[in-house]
Amino acid sequence: MSETSFDLTDLPKVEADSFHPIKTDALRKDDAPDHAPRILLLYGSLRKRSFSRLAVLEVQRILEQLGAETRIFNPSGLPLADDAEPDHPKVQELRELMMWSEGQVWCSPERHGSMTVIMKTMIDWVPLSAGAVRPTQGKTLALMQVSGGSQSFNALNQMRVLGRWMRMKPSPLYDRVVDVMEELMKFTHLTHGHSDYLTDRYSERKETAAELSARVNTK
Q: How far out from the chain centre does Cα 184 lie?
């Protein structure tokens, strides 16, 4: 992709001369996957005019210009955690998208000083492990928050324990959103095809070996 191939019609606030393609040759190894980075976008509101959803839609346009394949999960119809079986269609859809993704963007409003229950429910439905696979391990993550009224970062402060975090304010910091999406894509390219090795840890190998030994030696 050349710098002149961008169609920025839907991104009027992006300055074309400063919006550069991701230089994948500088980030990827010869044995990395040849598909585009897969980015899952989650938003934490069901309001008809949801600003977190609108922010995610804007981010989707930016990421696709940068060469990502994106999917957005619609949380409408997702039951509360443990209020349905894991085979519920919306739960299965969310878990499959988690497994599909190589990087993620989470955007939550702040409600009563915290992230929304919808955002927390999506996170709570993701198991720490699915067989021998950890659905979120080794994936890149960017966080955003939308706020009405007084500006605080309580939702971000809560979500950042789940991964890397970023700030989002009204329009003066739109450039920061573009910055972070560039960073997300660069780090996703860096981990592209190598997350299994990068997240291979001694303690987990030791735990897995102990579990296998116990299973094999069980009468």
A: 9
